[in-house]
TrEMBL record:
This is Mitochondrial GTPase 1. Belongs to the TRAFAC class YlqF/YawG GTPase family. MTG1 subfamily. GO terms for cellular component: mitochondrial inner membrane. GO terms for biological process: mitochondrial translation. The keyword Ligase does not apply. Keywords: GTP-binding, Membrane, Mitochondrion, Mitochondrion inner membrane, Nucleotide-binding, Transit peptide. GO terms for molecular function: GTP binding; GTPase activity. Pfam families: MMR_HSR1 (PF01926). Residues 145-224 form the G domain. It comes from Parnassius apollo (Apollo butterfly). CDD domains: YlqF. It is found in: Mitochondrion inner membrane. Its main location: mitochondrion.
Length: 337
């Protein structure tokens, strides 16, 4: 049984670790090109599905989408990777998105689970919204076109593959990966349903050209919407450590081979290097070789543990849930530990 620690016994950092905004700014040419392609294709689209990470439902969504893509068409917000978030808070998240952000169609999915209830509900909702909308120049068309949008690495291609597999019993057709930026241009439309005929456009993940909030950028980096090497794995691991300590989530202590919680990322990574035997050989000034802890590799191991759920279910936006006291938040978090 895991040891429980009293957060009040420790003096943890109160402020988010500082990272230069330049490290959180990633807007390569394919994103700009992809955004223009998406805007041009909008006239032939009947519905827009925005996919985002369920661990950050209130932060990191690209405001460019709201201004240029989702306003004129029926819009569904799909919060994917629900298996990695705090499930007991899903009703509260949905309620807040509807009340404060005017997003009326919210579905939580796990695009790796073919039996996911959210996936089953998505197609009927798409069809209903399109049938009840003014399709303008497409009113005579019998087929439905749907565009999938979102920031990088939230599961857009995986969602299309799973819908195609569920509804048409065919193999996956789109490449997917754990690294942001696999889809680099707007692809040919894929049929995901026969009756009615529904086609989907996969699109590249697109971030804001500039990051206005450092913690938002670090949340995106932690959820793999930014490429790790651009931000730095140790910086991402340090933010993860800060967040875990701030919310009394101490599974990392046993996982990283520590005796108790620590606020020092170097101490945590060195302990992890000992536990996982992660070392590298370096040459000294006299030409001799010696072994040192491979902190970069250990930071990658710690980040991966978060992304796969080994450190527990997380809602990184827990502090943004309105009308919730600290006691309520801790009670909800403790249920998932």
């Amino acid at each position: 049984m895991a040891v429980r620690f009293d957060a009040a016994a420790y003096s943890f950092r109160k402020k988010c670790p500082y990272v230069s905004k330049d490290l959180l700014r990633w807007f390569p040419g394919h994103m700009n090109k992809g955004l223009k392609q998406m805007q041009r294709k909008l006239t032939s689209v009947d519905c827009v599905i925005e996919v985002h990470d369920a661990r950050i439902p209130f932060t990191g969504r690209n405001p460019i989408f709201t201004n240029t893509l989702t306003g004129a068409k029926p819009h569904i917000l799909v919060l994917n990777k629900k298996d990695l978030t705090v499930r007991s808070l899903i009703p509260k998240i949905t309620e807040q998105l509807k009340a404060h952000e005017n997003i009326q169609n919210v579905i939580f999915t796990n695009s790796k689970d073919q039996d996911c209830r959210g996936l089953k509900a998505l197609k009927p909702l798409m069809v209903e919204l399109i049938k009840n909308s003014n399709r303008y120049n497409r009113s005579e068309e019998l087929d439905y076109n749907v565009m999938i949008i979102g920031v990088p690495n939230v599961g857009k291609s995986s969602l299309i593959n799973m819908l195609r597999s569920r509804n048409m019993s065919v193999r996956h057709a789109l490449p997917v990966g754990a690294v942001a930026g696999v889809t680099r241009s707007l692809m040919t439309k894929m049929r995901i349903n026969d009756d009615p005929k529904i086609f989907m456009f996969d699109t590249p993940g697109i971030l804001e050209p500039s990051v206005t909030d450092i913690e938002m950028g670090l949340k995106l980096a932690l959820c793999a919407s930014l490429q790790d090497h651009l931000v730095g794995e140790e910086a991402i691991a340090d933010y993860l450590l800060y967040w875990l300590n701030s919310h009394a989530k101490f599974k990392y202590v046993e996982y990283m081979g520590l005796e108790e919680p620590s606020d020092d990322i170097h101490k945590v990574l060195i302990a992890g290097a000992v536990k996982f035997n992660r070392v590298r050989r370096v040459r000294d000034f006299d030409g001799s070789m010696r072994e040192v802890p491979d902190l970069l590799e250990v930071a990658r191991t710690m980040i991966k543990a978060f992304r796969t759920g080994e450190l527990g279910k997380m809602l990184l936006d827990i502090d943004l849930l309105k009308c919730r006291s600290k006691d309520q938040i801790q009670q909800e978090l403790s249920v998932e530990m």
